[in-house]
From TrEMBL:
<keyword id="KW-1133">Transmembrane helix</keyword>
<feature type="transmembrane region" description="Helical">
    <location>
        <begin position="259"/>
        <end position="281"/>
    </location>
</feature>
<dbReference type="InterPro" id="IPR035952">
    <property type="entry name" value="Rhomboid-like_sf"/>
</dbReference>
<dbReference type="GO" id="GO:0004252">
    <property type="term" value="F:serine-type endopeptidase activity"/>
</dbReference>
<feature type="domain" description="Peptidase S54 rhomboid">
    <location>
        <begin position="112"/>
        <end position="249"/>
    </location>
</feature>
<dbReference type="GO" id="GO:0006508">
    <property type="term" value="P:proteolysis"/>
</dbReference>
<protein>
    <submittedName>
        <fullName>Rhomboid family intramembrane serine protease</fullName>
    </submittedName>
</protein>
<keyword id="KW-0645">Protease</keyword>
<feature type="transmembrane region" description="Helical">
    <location>
        <begin position="115"/>
        <end position="143"/>
    </location>
</feature>
<keyword id="KW-0812">Transmembrane</keyword>
<dbReference type="GO" id="GO:0016020">
    <property type="term" value="C:membrane"/>
</dbReference>
<dbReference type="InterPro" id="IPR050925">
    <property type="entry name" value="Rhomboid_protease_S54"/>
</dbReference>
<feature type="transmembrane region" description="Helical">
    <location>
        <begin position="234"/>
        <end position="252"/>
    </location>
</feature>
<dbReference type="InterPro" id="IPR022764">
    <property type="entry name" value="Peptidase_S54_rhomboid_dom"/>
</dbReference>
<dbReference type="Pfam" id="PF01694">
    <property type="entry name" value="Rhomboid"/>
</dbReference>
<feature type="transmembrane region" description="Helical">
    <location>
        <begin position="210"/>
        <end position="228"/>
    </location>
</feature>
<feature type="transmembrane region" description="Helical">
    <location>
        <begin position="77"/>
        <end position="95"/>
    </location>
</feature>
Amino acid sequence: MTQPQPGPAPTPTPVCPRHPDRIAYVRCQRCGRPTCPECQRPAAVGIQCVDCVREGQRAQRPARTAFGGRVTDGRPVVTLTLIGLCVLSYVLQLTTDRWTSELAFAPFIGETEPWRFLTSAFLHSPGSIVHIAFNMIALWSVGPFLEASLGRWRYLALYLLSAVGGSVMFLLLASPFEQSWYTALVGASGAVFGLFGAVLVVLRRVGRSAGGIVAVLVINAVLGFVLPGVAWQAHLGGLVVGAALGAAFAYAPRDRRTAVAVGSCVAALVLLVGAALVTYAGV
C-alpha cells in the first residue's frame, strides 16, 4: 500500500520590505524585491523601489556648469534673496533713521565697526527710490545669468566680496584731512559693478558678445563723474574685485576649479582686509 506524497509547500505571499503589512506582486527591476505602490518608482525599464532609486542618485555625480558650479533647478534663489534683503532694508530705512546710521560705511568709523564695509551695500538713499530701483534692476539684469553659470556659492561670494571691495576702494581714495573721510557710503553699486566685471570675463570666456555690458559700464562711469553724490570709487573697487574673481572662476583648470575658486576668494578677502588695515595704520 503506497502512502500519498506531500505536495510542495505553498509559496509565501510577497510583501513589501518597507511595509510588511502590504502585499506586493510587483518586483523592483534592480534588486528583485517586492515593492508596494507607495514604494514604486518608474524607471527607464520597469519599476524600481525607492531604496534602489536613492542608491542610484547617490552614485551619480552632480551635473556641473561650464565653470564648475552645480546645476540647479534654474531659479535664481540667491539673486532673489539679495534683492529681497535690499528691499527689506530700504523699508527699515524709511521706518527709522537709526537703521541707516548703524549700518552705513564711512572711512572714519570703519576701523572700529568693520561690519559696515559690507552692510552698507544693503542700504540705499532713503530720499530717492531711483537709487535702489536702478541697482535692483541692474542686479536682476546680470545676476540670474551669473548665478546659473558660476553656481550659487561662487556667485554669492563674488557679490559680497565685490561689495566689500567697493567700500575698501572708497576708503583708499579718501583723505582724513578732507570731507571724504566723514562721508557716508550706501548702495549696492559696488557689488553690482563687481557682477558687471565678472560677466565681462565670463562672456568673453564662452565667446559671447559683451557689448551691452561695456556700454552700461561706460555710461555709469561717465555719470559717476558728472552727477553729484555718486561714489565712483565704490564702482571702481567693485569692478576690479569682480573682474579678478570672474577671471579666476572662468579660467580655472577643470580639475582644480573648486580649489582655485576657494583660494581666490580667500586671497581677495585677505588683500581687502590687509589694504584696510594698512590704510588705518597710516592715519
